User: Fold DNA helicase IV from Nonomuraea polychroma.
Amino acid sequence: MGTLDDEREHVERCRAGLRRMLEGARNNVILGETVAGDRYSAERLGRQLKSLAKELKELTEEPEGPPFFGRLDFGQGSAEHRGRSYHIGRRHISGEHGGPPVVIDWRAPVSRAFYRAGPRDPQGVAVRRRFGWSGTLLTSYEDERLEQGEQGESRILAAEIERPRVGPMRDIVATIQPEQDDLVRADLNASICVQGAPGTGKTAVGLHRAAYLLYAHRRRLERSGVLVLGPNRAFIGYISAVLPALGEVDVEQTTLERLLATVPVTAADSEATAIVKHDARMAEVLRRAVYGRISKPVEPVVVADGSSRWRVQEDELRRIVDDTRRESLPYGVGRERVRARVVASIRRQAEARGQTANAAWLRRIGRAVTPALDAVWPPVKPEELLYDLLRGPTPATTTSEERGGRDPAKGVLTDTERAAITWLQPPRSVKSASWTPADLVLLDEIAAMIERPRGYGHVIVDEAQDLSPMECRAVARRSEHGSLTVLGDLAQGTTPWAATSWKERMALLGKPDGEVIALTTGYRVPAAVVELANTLLGALRVDVPATRSYRSDGRLRLTRVTNLETGVVAAAREALGFEGSIGVIAADAAVEALTSALWNDGLDLAGRLSVLPASLAKGLEYDHVIVAEPAAIAAAERRGLNRLYVALTRAVSRLDVVHARPLPAPLTRPEHTA
Ligand SMILES: Nc1ncnc2c1ncn2[C@@H]1O[C@H](COP(=O)(O)OP(=O)(O)OP(=O)(O)O)[C@@H](O)[C@H]1O
Assistant:
C-alpha cells in the first residue's frame, strides 16, 4: 500500500518520467527537423513534436501541477486488473524503459472506477486513495477500502469543494462526482441536455466532457472540431483556462455573438424589435426573401461564341430553374447548378455540331451565361437582403412581385410585428446600415441559406436557456452532423425569449430526441444561501427539480441600511478581511455610483474586489458576494426576479445582501439568518 514517503518517491518517479518524455520529445523534434524525407513531412512532424514539447514543458513548469491526484488498488476480484495499482492524474506519464506508465490519464477507461466505484459496487477496487497537496508538495492521503464496504466523507474532497475561490475557474478532475462523470463520459453520438440549479457543475461538466471526448475520439474530433459557446466575454475569460490546463488547447471557446460576427455591431434593438427578430417565424420570412429572388425566366439565354450563337430556350431554362428549386439545395449551390445545366445544354448543342468542348471553352461559356443567370437566380448578399427587408415592404408592382419585391413578412408576421422590425429611418445604403446583435443572427440565417456553414463534431452550449429560437437554429446548423451538450437552468433564464421547456429547446436545436438529465447537488453555493435563493423559485414559474447543497459551511447575512452606498462600502471593507475574490453585484444602473463610492473610500477595484452589473454575473462566481439592493435588480427588467436569482447564487463562501429598500416580495429571509 505504501506510506507517504513511498508516495513521495512515486512523485519523483513521475518527475523523472516527465523529464524523459520532454527530452524524448526534444530529440524527436531535432530528428524530425533533420530526418524527415521531404520538407512538407518535416514541417508537419516538427510542428507536432514542437507542440508536444511545449505541452510537456508547460506541464513540468506548472507550479500547481501535482502529477497525480488519486490511486486505485485493484483486489483479487478484478478480472482485468487483479492485484494492480494505478496512479491517476491529469495526463499520462510513461514509465522507465517502456515499462508501465507511472500515471494514467483520468480519461482512460481504467480511471473510470476512480469516479464510479463505491462500497455497493466496488468495481474490483480494493482501495481508492485520494491525495492532498500543498502546491507541488504531497501532504496527505485518504483511503477508502471499498471492498470492505468503506466509504467515508472525504476531507480532501470537501476541502477542494469548499476552497476559497481566486482567479479563473479550475478543473475538477480530482473530484468529479459520479452523476457528473456519467455526463462527462456520455457517448459522443449522444446529444444531451443538462438541467442544473446554480453551482451543480454544469459548466465544469461541459468542459470536462470536451476534454474527455477529445481523448476518446481524438482523430474524429481533431478533424471536425469542438466548439464551446458561453453567454459573454467575461464568462469565456473565466472558463478559458480549464481546457488548456487539461492539455486541450484546440477547442474553440467563444460567444455566439462573436461566432456570428460577420459585420460589426454598432446598434441595439428595442426589446419589442428584438423579440420579433429572434422569433422562429423569422426563418420563414428570410426563406421567402431569399427564394423570392428567383424569378420565372421570361427570355431565352443567348450566348455569342465566335461565329456561333447558342440559345437555351425559355421553356428549357424554366425547366432547369424549376428542377433545381425542387432539389432544395443551398441558394448559392442552386445558382451554380443552374449555370452548370445551362452550360451542359449549350455543350450538347455544340457537340452535336461536331465542336469539342474543352475546359477553357466550358469556362468561357460559363462566364458568358452570367447575365442570364443573374436575371433568374441572382447572387444574394446577406446584408443586402436584410437591408431590403428592414427598409420595409416595397410597393407591389407586378415586376417587383415577381422579383421577390413583395413583402416576405406578409402573412407570417402581424402588421405590428412587421412595423417593429422596420427601420424608422432607413439608412441610405447597405454600407451605412448599423447592425444589431439580433441582425447578426438573421444575417447568419441568410448566409446559411446561401451556403451551409462549417459544422463541428461536438458543440457545447452553456447558459442555453437564454438562447432564442433563431439562435438555436444557428447552433443547430453547426451541430447538424455532430452532437450537442446543452447546459442550462430554466430558473436562470433572463432573456425575453428564455426557454420554459427543454424538450422544445432541444427540438429547436435540432436534437429533439436528446435526453434531458438533471443535476441536483450544488457544489458552489452554501446551504443557507440556497435556502434564500429558493424562496424565489415559486415566483419564477419554471418546473425545475429541487437541489441540495453539498456544503453546510458558508455564511448568509441580510443587512438593512439607510444609505446603500455606505452600506456596501462597509460590507466590502469587511469582506476584504477574508481570503478570496469579492464581487459586488448591483442593478446595471447602480454600478457607476457604487464604483465611485468604493473608489472614493480608497478601495482597490483592480485586485480581488470588483463591481459588476447583474446582467454580466451569469456563470461567474466569487468567494464573497455582496448583492446590493435586490429590489432594484428585480425591478430593472421583465425577468428581474430571475436575474436576482442568478445574482444571489454566485457566492462560494459568504453572501451579504445589503438593502435600503424592502426586499422584493417573493424573497423572504430564512428564519435563522443574521
Ligand atoms: N465535483 C466537483 N468538485 C469540485 N468542485 C466542483 C465540482 N462540481 C462543481 N464544482 C465547483 O462548483 C462551482 C460551480 O460549478 P459550475 O460553475 O460548473 O456550476 P454551474 O452549474 O455551471 O453553475 P451556474 O448555473 O450558476 O453557472 C465551480 O467552482 C466548480 O469548480
